[in-house]
């Protein structure tokens, strides 16, 4: 518990740093010496606070989505981007952009979430036909499914001249976040809270269908709830800032190493560390090429793939 | 007897071929075109011309040369009226229909920029020239291409006219921009912003029109420009913003305008004085090496400066 407090404090410190990193001069001194109508205060309210909130929300909810996914699939190497979920959401977003470009973002998000739901359900369906539950086989199946869905998406994007937009969606980026342009991400918080409330059920469901049924739980219902949380979070983040790879994979795995697998204990950890990790990466992305920015997905991808490799190899080593 | 007849026919045929070749060589002068990927000799004025580049189509069209084949998709909207249905579809920019082109036996194939990499294969099928241009010296490149095409198709007068018109238009834009402060070329893509610098595909705004850039060290991430935030725009605060809207594909027209319509942008000079110029997205991103496209953008720049007064 004390450790968790340290984590929370770390996140708050990072959040405060995030408020003061940017092109405009928003130092404490500038803020104190200016009134509410002056530029530093305006930039803080219109740009910095929304951006920091967006990072906190996206980071924590994506990490939670990864955790839920790992519970219901019973595999540590699964997360929305290795299960076809993100790719399906992207396809949904592309379809709605093509067919109904004028729809509000909220409606587009819902369509993307529906596609994500369908794609993830398909993934679970395919898994049933995979007899060998090898730890690495499951994410491989997911990555292949994601590849197939991604190919369909690319095809349509190519045909309709939308490849640049597709590329932009797949590159998560917080640089465009402003007041009024990130609020959908609060749905992610709703997902996190739902995951916390239903944490015990997911823990039980993680032990298998028979076990769950024996304890008197409706296995299907728990799975469906998990799928809905994962789909909504993936769609919301995709539509608001673009996809952020690996996040849902690294954070839950690191937390699992630290505090084990009881989901009621891990949910706060995953949420806090997810937020801290994305905050740190975004601050790095803002500083490295100041005043220009590096998209968050690049920074997370570089650090994340390194960590992912480490986790994979570590597992191998233990098994051998 | 039979043998001698055959022999005589053969000799006659040979003589005929030789004399034909001679006359062909004598009447239409061969033109040797030097281009970025080598030299190509074109004999006579080509009649059946294929282009795998919309900017080249644009230039040929402006010169009044009839084009027989063009890419099957992505024709810029401002060229749509000139793209007839009887055009042979040469395939896509990156993947031309080599077999189809070989079967059609065109007199000349033009590649450039995106299709330049197909030159080695195409040059084995038909006389092919590469009309790629260096973005850093774009206007001179377009004019050079017009001149070259004028020579190949024997329409030098028309080419000279177009070159003069382009010069006049540049001069007009230059005069309009004179003393109006700094500019910045912004590229918007699905909610993200990038800036184009002095070496990019829109460098002519700075180089040719003399509009000072608000900064001179943009590294230009090739396609999307350097990633920036709205804060950056607020602080750099250029007097004029030139916007390349890459979302303006299917039904997404106005995406850039919607993106820029926000609280931070409302604080900038460009927004407050209505000094934001939206460049034709296809001309700015795909066919900036074409005469019509360039003239279109120059007109948009001129209009932007004149309407702001």
Description:
The complex is a heterodimer of chains A (320) and B (309). In chain A, helix 1 packs across helix 3 (39-73), helix 6 (137-159) packs antiparallel against helix 7 and helix 8 (186-197) runs antiparallel to helix 11 (219-241). Chain A is globular and about 65 Å long. Chain A starts with a helix and ends with a helix. Chain A has helices spanning 2-20, 28-32, 39-73, 85-99, 105-128, 137-159, 163-170, 186-197, 199-205, 209-214, 219-241, 247-259, 263-288, 296-319. Chain A is 75% helix and 0% strand. By secondary structure, chain A is mainly α. Chain B is of the alpha/beta class and 309 residues long. Helix content of chain B is 42%, strand content 16%. Chain B has helices at residues 2-27, 54-63, 98-104, 119-125, 138-152, 156-177, 204-207, 230-236, 255-260, 269-272, 281-285, 291-308, and strands at residues 30-35, 38-43, 49-51, 69-70, 88-89, 108-111, 128-130, 183-189, 192-196, 226-228, 240-245, 276-278. In chain B, the strands form four sheets. In chain B, strands 10-9-8-11-12 form a five-stranded mixed beta sheet. The N and C termini of chain B lie far apart (93 Å). Residues 16-27 of chain B have low confidence and may be disordered. The A-B interface holds A 22-24, 39, 42-43, 46-47, 97-98, 101-102, 159-162, 164-165, 167-169, 171, 173, 175-176, 178-181, 242, 289, 291-295 and B 73-74, 189-193, 195, 219, 223-224, 226-232, 234-235, 246-247, 249-252, 259, 262-264, 267.
Helix vs. strand class of chain A: mainly alpha
Number of helices of chain A: 14
- Give the integer mean of the pLDDT values of chain B: 85
Assembly context of the chains? heterodimer
Q: Major β-sheet of chain B, in short?
A: 5 strands, mixed
Uncertain segments of chain A of ≥5 residues (pLDDT<50)? none
Order of helices and strands of chain A: HHHHHHHHHHHHHH
Order of helices and strands of chain B: HEEEHEEHEHEHHEEHEHEHHEHH
